[in-house]
Amino acid sequence: MTLIALNKPFGTMSQFSEHPTRPTLAACVDVPGVYPAGRLDADSEGLLLLTDDGALQARIADPRHKLEKTYLAQVEGIPDAAALARLRAGVDLGDFVTQPARARAIGEPEWLWPRDPPVRYRAAIPTSWLELKIREGKNRQVRRMTAAVGFPTLRLVRVGIGPLDLRTLGLAPGESREIEPGVLGLPAARAPATHVSKTRQANDIKRRSRYKS
């Protein structure tokens, strides 16, 4: 079983198959048989897990296992207390209501690598940073959440999945490293139950009784 942590660069598709206009994971990871566990949009950056084990892939992506994802979002404007309260309570996005998130305003992360290309600068509109922790993974969910409360996301970086964090992994964009699957703390996959017929059970009991006599 292989588990790989990758710092996916901005603009890279979360797939290995060739894309007509964008780079793919094949430019970053040269390990046969691994696939992304979960999604990360092309215009988002950061931590992406890959594995060659289908059961592990499903457990990582399954919201029942509550692997919290941590995002840093550079947003347009400066969110007030009311906007943060809405993110924490759950946001109605029309097609679904998000689960409550952990959200807080943070300073600009000094450790974060510069984006290529950089976010467009507009002197008349200030930007700020949020840290968001969610347990869901709907399509473009964080971007939709911040836009719904009035502060569109300009840059989005996933820095954590469960206990794994890019700040401690030390991965630059495009870099990857193999991880021990046990660090995720996920329950082991259950072996499929074996059905034993009543006839077979009765025969086993007779066999055991003959051995005892």
Total domain count: 2
Strand content: 15-25%
Share of residues in helices: 10-25%
Judged by helices, strands and strand pairing, the structural class is alpha+beta
Summarize the structure.
This protein is 21% helix and 23% strand. The chain is of the alpha+beta class. The relative contact order is 0.22.
Question: What's the helix and strand layout?
Answer:
Elements: E1 3-8, E2 35-36, E3 45-51, H1 54-61, E4 69-76, H2 81-89, E5 102-106, E6 127-134, H3 141-148, E7 153-161, E8 164-165, H4 166-169, E9 176-178, H5 198-212
Would you kindly provide a written description of the structure presented here, covering whatever features stand out?
This is Pseudouridine synthase. Pfam families: PseudoU_synth_2. Residues 190-213 are annotated as: Disordered. By secondary structure, the chain is an alpha+beta fold. The protein folds into two domains: 1-65 and 168-213, Alpha-Beta Plaits; 68-161, Alpha-Beta Plaits (2-Layer Sandwich). It has helices at residues 54-61, 81-89, 141-148, 166-169, 198-212; strands spanning 3-8, 35-36, 45-51, 69-76, 102-106, 127-134, 153-161, 164-165, 176-178. The longest helix has 15 residues, at 198-212. Mean pLDDT is 88; it is low at 191-196.
